[in-house]
Fold this protein.
Amino acid sequence: MISKHIIKKYLGIIILTTVFVTDYNAQILGINQPLFSDLPFFNTQFVRQNNIKSIKGSISSKKVRDIIRSNNLDYSYQFNEDGTLKSQLSSHYSKGLKDSTVVSYEYQNNNIILKRKSDSYGYYSYRYNIDDKGNVITQTYCRDENQFNAKKKFKLKKQYIIKKDSFSYQEYDNQTKKKFYNNYGKKFKTQTNYYDSLGYLVEE
């Protein structure tokens, strides 16, 4: 049973131990999600069933004929009771200085409707409208003003809308075509995703 509070392991080790698990519900990582990105990549059902509250880890790498070396990157993930990712904190150490980035999420029907991230200028966020299939149909990019000075504590003081994009989808056998539209409704990009017979993303 995984610890109910903190798993103190290298996340790289977690990845290696889950690659060989064939049962999706038995692995900690989700499918079709980029690892260590701004979006959640954990298996929500696994996290919920094992009552995982948080995970902490570090990133290390190894070159050929070399030892494992730390990349000076630490990560901390906090989860809601339903297994969804509440927030993630990444910290980078360079020349004795620590630089941290916080990403938090809000959900509706297990779909992300808000992603907020800190940067050197403060905070920015993306607000999403979701269709009944779980697809994002609009995305609003905003700059957010925090009432507090601390990164780990946020309360919205003021929000400035920068731009709003929209999307449409067409589904075919083992592929999905996504079209991107700007503020003026003009299409500027088309993306096609291909999936195998098990539903895993194989190409985009």
Q: What stands out?
A: The first strand starts at residue 6 and ends at 8. The chain has two helices and twelve strands. Confidence is low (pLDDT under 50) at residues 1-24.
